[in-house]
Amino acid sequence: MFKVKTALATALCALALSAPAFASHCPVDAKSIDAALTKMELSDEVKAEVQALRDEGMKQHEAGKHHDAEKTLAQAMRMLLDSVSM
Ligand SMILES: [Cu+2]
Hints:
Keywords: Signal
Number of strands: 0
Number of domains: 1
Signal peptide: 1-23
Strand content: under 5%
Bound molecules: copper (II) ion
Structural class: mainly alpha
Number of helices: 4
Shape: globular
Order of helices and strands: HHHH
């Protein structure tokens, strides 16, 4: 659990610092979200919401809207982080 949280926090940090020009950044974020979804114990509600944000983010990525995609993916990661802060 701790490792997942650290990975997410790191990804979120990198996201905040990186220029949104990296098209390959979105799939990396989506992957860390996927990993978190399988490793973390989440309520169905949170899981569904994170999954929806993740899918939307990848759709935006595929449409070439990487900045929007990163914002959406960041939202999903923040939600994951919030759900483990205890
Ligand atoms: Cu992208």
